[in-house]
């Protein structure tokens, strides 16, 4: 690496509210800063943008037809290509800067609008003293100064800003004036490609330093969706530590005519930018590979793929060649692809985040709702979605993520002084659950292996099963473990947990090596994994009721929705209800039959066997769940609705701390003084008006009857869910709160909005419908066939994917139990 320095001009680019930009002199009370170092990283990785690498990419693209073109008369065909990188030489960057001032190119102004309005909020979330920012492809940094102004206005100290660019001239022209304008911030230029800079940051910045990557201008659109996800995953894995953040500008799938004009402007600046790429190829090879006059720019918007496509079109039959390479013949009208600019729907962003294994904090949007800045974060744990790729047994990787989640929640969110706290009087204190998970696992492994329990064996007696009192008479309780006069010390429980986990690892090693451990032991492995996932959710709904709980370390609170929908939920008519298939075939007694094959999936006794639920009368059902805003209207309409003693106020709400009770422009007293209980503390109701409301069955039933409707039956909700594959599907810790469907068209079926859903069906199974009590866990469901528990379906944000994605999974709670993450939608007979 060879550092260089640059001088400091006295002009800085400033954005004005009228949308125009100009240079102005900067006056500062600080001494003139030292020259800004620029570190040359080129050639440090195999992806570096060296001339040799570019030459190889150019020849490969011209020699083979490997890019799909969808607009020919004969359907999709393969065409040649030129690497997009050729567009970004010094002259290309200069022309691109001109593009950002073109009126039709809405992306720049939209992003500036977002930053102008939200940079301070964003920086306050992601940075503190000593933080660093790394901007990938910084360009002229007209937009970046909003981030820098936010850093300055927040009074942050010792912040370092790293600017990454392919052009040394661009770095020289941009960094010095910014260093002059923001003398409290340290600036460093990184000359090279993205991969060069990621390697440099990962090897030189301490792991304890907070990092925020900036990727602005919708540059992500230059990669296809798979490449984009792979690149973000690479940064997440190699360049970030838990809690680090990534601010990414992403253009939406806007109207085709709008996108088309943005990339084919009336001043032909974009055309000049694309055509300059041919000149750059000639410069790289130091030969006249392309005759620029023999080509034209072809601009196409592919609405199906959601991308703009840029091509060179040959104006005649011609031959091109590069020194040392074979000649390539081009026919008249043959096209060469040079650039894609992908646009993203919400579903495509969700998929991007999933593949990159990021946590999606939320987004900031411009006032015209055309463009978003998404804030991603590297989470402390990550549960992969889509059970299509899962085996019948949880892998050791899945167990590893489960343990990361369990340990993160139990060690960072529960203060040591609160382990004996009972935030819900109907539940044991936190410390019981610390011992219950390893004890349950150890008991099941010991039984399946016909081996002794792990020491201390007394823990099995104390921690085997928790309490579940009757809400009407708490003295009535299901069978449970002995409650000790004094709970064991947490440190002793943690040591026990470690020994039980090691026991599991040995079993998993045997499974990985292909040893026949037996079907009953495999069932135990599956059951204990899902059992731990269920209690992970239990711990979290207990924690939101605990005023002393600590927010999860390394996970940011969500960004409130700027433009919540006010559209009412549509009623979806089901004039001809169908029988609904549900359940799975998984007979436990076959575990003892050596020749019997494993089932397709294991399941709990209440899921079995596969069966049909008979159709009922014609009905209609809401397209989405009832929101907090709608429930607020209900409380306002009820006499004393906001008074706790009425039983209508959700246990998921609480009065805001006195410092947060500003009216915020709302007239309703309850709205201005109450908030939603979350793992991040009590957040204002006004930030969650379109989020689903979490209530007890009794509260949901009262709301429904007041509206002249009812809750759907299990059969109706299962039928609805079979068609409700639309996003958001917020489960598996995709978010740490229930956010709902605020930016989804409400006429589409929406499921899994972050809460389980109540049904009007009472939990009850019998031999008549094939139910057989579990051998492995006899009390799993049968203890609750008491007429007081109702079926809930779906998942919450805290439900692990293995449970969320198994449509046969059946959950239940007492009708008056107010603490679970459960919402509801309305139905009525036709």
Mean pLDDT, to the nearest integer, reads: 90
The total of beta strands comes to 30
Helical/strand content category: alpha+beta
- CATH classification, class level of the largest domain: Alpha Beta
Characterize the largest beta sheet: strand count, sense, and whether it forms a barrel.
9 strands, mixed
Estimate what percentage of residues fall within beta strands: 15-25%
CATH superfamily of the largest domain: Vaccinia Virus protein VP39
Strand order of the largest sheet: 1-4-9-8-7-10-11-18-17
Distance between the termini: 74 Å
CATH architecture of the largest domain: 3-Layer(aba) Sandwich
What Rg, in angstroms, do the CA atoms define?
A: 30 Å
Overall, the morphology is globular
What percent of residues adopt helix (DSSP H or I)?
Answer: 25-40%
């Amino acid at each position: 690496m060879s550092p260089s320095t640059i001088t400091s001009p006295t002009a800085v680019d400033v954005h004005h509210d009228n949308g125009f930009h100009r240079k102005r002199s900067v006056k500062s009370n600080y001494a003139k800063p030292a020259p800004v170092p620029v570190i040359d990283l080129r050639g440090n990785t195999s992806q570096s943008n060296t001339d040799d690498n570019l030459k190889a990419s150019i020849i490969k693209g011209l020699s083979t037809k490997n890019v799909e073109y969808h607009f020919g008369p004969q359907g999709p065909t393969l065409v040649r290509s030129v690497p997009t990188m050729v567009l970004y030489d010094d002259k290309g960057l200069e022309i691109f800067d001109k593009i950002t001032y073109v009126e039709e190119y809405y992306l720049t102004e939209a992003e500036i609008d977002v930053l102008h309005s939200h940079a301070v909020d964003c920086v306050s979330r992601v940075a503190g003293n000593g933080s660093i920012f790394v901007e990938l492809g910084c360009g002229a940094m007209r937009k970046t100064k909003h981030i820098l102004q936010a850093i300055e206005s927040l009074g942050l100290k010792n912040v370092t800003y790293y600017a990454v660019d392919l052009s040394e001239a661009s770095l020289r022209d941009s960094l010095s004036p910014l260093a002059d304008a923001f003398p409290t911030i340290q600036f460093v230029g990184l000359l090279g490609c993205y991969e060069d800079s990621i390697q440099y940051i990962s090897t030189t910045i301490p792991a304890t330093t907070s990092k925020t990557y900036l990727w602005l201008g919708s540059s992500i659109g230059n990669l296809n969706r798979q490449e984009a996800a792979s690149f973000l995953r690479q940064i997440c894995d190699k360049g970030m530590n838990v809690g680090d953040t990534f601010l990414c500008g992403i253009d939406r799938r806007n109207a085709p005519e709008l996108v088309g004009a943005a990339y084919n402007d009336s001043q032909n600046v974009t055309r000049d930018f694309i055509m300059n790429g041919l000149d750059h190829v000639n410069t790289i090879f130091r030969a006249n590979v392309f005759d620029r006059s023999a080509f034209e720019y072809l601009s196409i918007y592919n609405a199906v793929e959601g991308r703009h496509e840029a091509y060179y079109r040959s104006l005649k039959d011609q031959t091109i060649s590069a020194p040392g390479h074979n000649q390539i013949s081009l026919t008249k009208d043959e096209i060469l692809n040079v650039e894609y600019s992908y646009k993203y729907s919400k579903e495509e962003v969700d998929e991007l985040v999933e593949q990159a294994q990021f946590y999606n904090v939320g987004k900031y949007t411009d006032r015209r709702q055309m463009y978003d800045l998404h804030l991603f974060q590297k989470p402390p744990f990550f549960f992969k979605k889509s059970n299509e790729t899962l085996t019948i047994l949880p892998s050791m990787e899945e167990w590893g993520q489960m343990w990361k989640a369990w340990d993160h929640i139990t060690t960072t969110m529960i203060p040591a002084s609160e382990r004996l706290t009972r935030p819900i009087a109907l539940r044991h204190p936190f410390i019981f659950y610390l011992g219950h998970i390893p004890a349950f696992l150890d008991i099941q492994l010991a039984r399946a292996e016909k081996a002794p329990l792990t020491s201390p064996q007394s823990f099995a007696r104390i921690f085997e099963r928790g309490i579940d009192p009757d809400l009407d008479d708490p003295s009535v309780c299901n069978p449970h473990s002995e409650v000790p006069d004094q709970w064991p010390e947490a440190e002793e429980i943690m040591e026990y947990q470690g020994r039980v986990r090691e026991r599991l690892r040995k079993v998993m090693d045997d499974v990985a090596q292909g040893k026949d451990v037996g079907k009953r032991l495999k069932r135990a492995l599956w059951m204990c994994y899902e059992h731990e996932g269920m209690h992970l959710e239990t711990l979290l709904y207990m924690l939101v009721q605990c005023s002393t709980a600590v927010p999860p370390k390394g996970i940011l609170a969500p960004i409130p929705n700027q433009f919540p929908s006010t559209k009412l939920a549509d009623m979806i008519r089901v004039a001809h209800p169908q029988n609904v298939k549900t359940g799975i075939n998984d007979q436990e007694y076959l575990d003892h039959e050596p020749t019997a094959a494993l089932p397709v999936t294991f399941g709990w006794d209440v899921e079995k066997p596969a069966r049909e639920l008979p159709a009922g009368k014609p009905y209609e059902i809401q397209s989405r769940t009832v929101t907090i805003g709608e429930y607020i209207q209900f409380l306002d309409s009820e006499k004393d609705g906001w008074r706790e003693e009425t039983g209508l106020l959700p246990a998921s709400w609480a009065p805001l701390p006195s410092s947060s009770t500003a009216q915020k422009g709302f007239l309703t007293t309850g709205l201005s003084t109450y908030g939603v209980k979350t793992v991040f503390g009590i957040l204002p109701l006004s930030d969650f008006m379109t989020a689903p409301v979490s209530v007890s069955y009794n509260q949901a039933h009262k709301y429904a009857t007041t509206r002249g409707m009812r809750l759907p039956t299990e059969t109706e909700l299962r039928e609805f869910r079979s068609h409700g594959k639309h996003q958001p599907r917020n489960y598996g810790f995709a978010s740490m709160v229930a956010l709902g469907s605020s930016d989804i068209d409400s006429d589409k079926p929406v499921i899994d909005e972050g809460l389980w859903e109540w049904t009007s069906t009472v939990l009850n199974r019998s031999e008549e419908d094939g139910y057989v009590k579990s051998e492995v866990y006899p009390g799993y469901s049968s203890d609750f066939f008491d007429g007081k528990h109702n079926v809930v379906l779906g998942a919450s944000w805290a439900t692990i994917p293995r449970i969320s994605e198994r449509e046969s999974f059946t959950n239940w709670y007492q009708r008056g139990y107010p603490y679970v993450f459960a919402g509801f939608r309305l139905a009525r007979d036709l």
